[in-house]
Specification:
The chain is mainly β. It has no helices and 6 strands.
Length: 78
């Protein structure tokens, strides 16, 4: 859950990262994450606008939490 907006949820599993902007009513795959085996999803406690997604095998993706919301595209990886 995004601490700034309790309606925004994140779910990571064996098929990628999914987000919901409506408290779990609908879910959308975040296609920009460069791996599909999601281990953890965390919102930066010092900067709630940034999220971190880790994958099994050591991958880490850092990006804007507000843009990883269902129905919006995340910016490309840098």
């Amino acid at each position: 859950m995004n601490p700034r907006d309790p309606d925004v949820l994140y779910f990571g599993g064996t098929r990628g990262l999914y987000t919901s902007a409506d408290a779990g009513e609908t879910w959308h795959l975040v296609e920009e994450i460069p791996f599909s085996l999601i281990h953890r999803v965390r919102i930066d406690p010092r900067d709630g606008a940034t999220m971190y997604v880790t994958g099994f095998g050591g991958g880490v993706w850092r990006g804007p939490a507000r843009l990883a919301v269902a129905g919006r595209k995340c910016p490309p990886r840098r």
